[in-house]
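User: Could you write out the 3D structure of this protein bound to adenosine-5'-triphosphate? I've included everything you need below.
Assistant: Certainly. Input first, then the structure.
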Amino acid sequence: MPGSICHKNAKIVTYSIDLSLWATYSSSMPKSADTTTGPLPEWDPERPYNQLPDLPPPVDLETKKILKQCILSRAAVAELRQAALRIPNQGILINTVPLLEAQASTEIENIVTTSDQLFRYRDSEENADPATKEALRYCQALLNGYRSLTKKPLSTTTAEQVCSKIKDKEMRVRRVPGTALSTPGGKVIYTPPEGESLLREKLANWERFLHERTDLDPLVRMAVGHYQFEAIHPFTDGNGRTGRILNSLFLIQKGLLSLPILYLSRYIIDNKSEYYRLLLEVTSDGSWEEWILFVLKGVAENARWTTGKIEAIVSLFFDTGAYVKEELPKIYSFELVQAIFEQPYCRIQNLVERDIAERRAASRHLKQLVDIGVLEVKKAGREKLFIHKKLLRLLTSDSNGYKAYD
Ligand SMILES: Nc1ncnc2c1ncn2[C@@H]1O[C@H](COP(=O)(O)OP(=O)(O)OP(=O)(O)O)[C@@H](O)[C@H]1O
Ligand SMILES: [Mg+2]
């Protein structure tokens, strides 16, 4: 256990989150009486919320509104799952969509990098700027978490591993007091529970809720579990990003998706103030329905967005394959086309490592792909980068169109 971490945090640390759009909220606002929730525990934003109720909450989690939205969201996720299975090489998705998720999720923390930078430095992290490095770590945390599911189910340990990877140091459940969420102006809006054993008990209850046998829809369970994880706020930092990775992993564990391609952070970033407001209103007002609907809508919206993206990638993949085959029949191979889709920033070395060609031939192949307009070449220090512009444009813009090869 990292004694130094405890030591370092032995002072009161207030982590500031960007709540600039929150002017409308005041913690002293009268709470609407919600007859469905029953009495809420005493809650003071500035005191550790050790009374945070265990799951499941004593409310109807399957209201008509929730069930109706759930049907739409489940259908959208099922379509995404199917679209992902249609792609000829799953590696293309694994190497691209998680980077988009990483970019959006770290942007919520105001760590701003571009998707372009992420693709560029994925294989040569050491040259990247700090924001890009941090987002790349998010992506690795997501992929490590995904791999870990084959060995063990989602648990507190998974959360610790994910958070440690994101923060690039050993992160354990908090042992010392002093973590709070505040506005940039310094007003504390929520203080999570304190005390390692209490936090571990709360997390054990959270785990049981995620895994217990119940017919509660997994998407609803994910929404409820995400609130609870954030309310427990087990770490001194990185809770938001860890929680968002856990959401993706949970859907894989429940078999709703087979790859970590739920790109929910994009929706959250577009609706950030609502995300914060609704999390807080579960605590202050027991507003579960609104929170669950918000998450379910986000799932549907993102699943549709990613399905569209995947379909466009698949279509570009086949178009590119056909074009290369026609223009460069001597060097065409499925593996070559696959490589420039898995690595939109391709290096000669990448083709060598994949046994596609020896160094000199690989260099020639890439140059020929430049000559026919599939790739563009750029010098980066002593190295040449072969950039798959059409694919990058597809990945980094909202549009799913691309200019056809003539
Ligand atoms: N009222 C609230 N109650 C519980 N959790 C909240 C509340 N408001 C925000 N949060 C969560 O806290 C996260 C911020 O906590 P923390 O700084 O530990 O995480 P992070 O990953 O570093 O940041 P970020 O989520 O901004 O990227 C938010 O993303 C959100 O998930
Ligand atoms: Mg933070």
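The mean pLDDT is 87.
User: Perfect, thank you.
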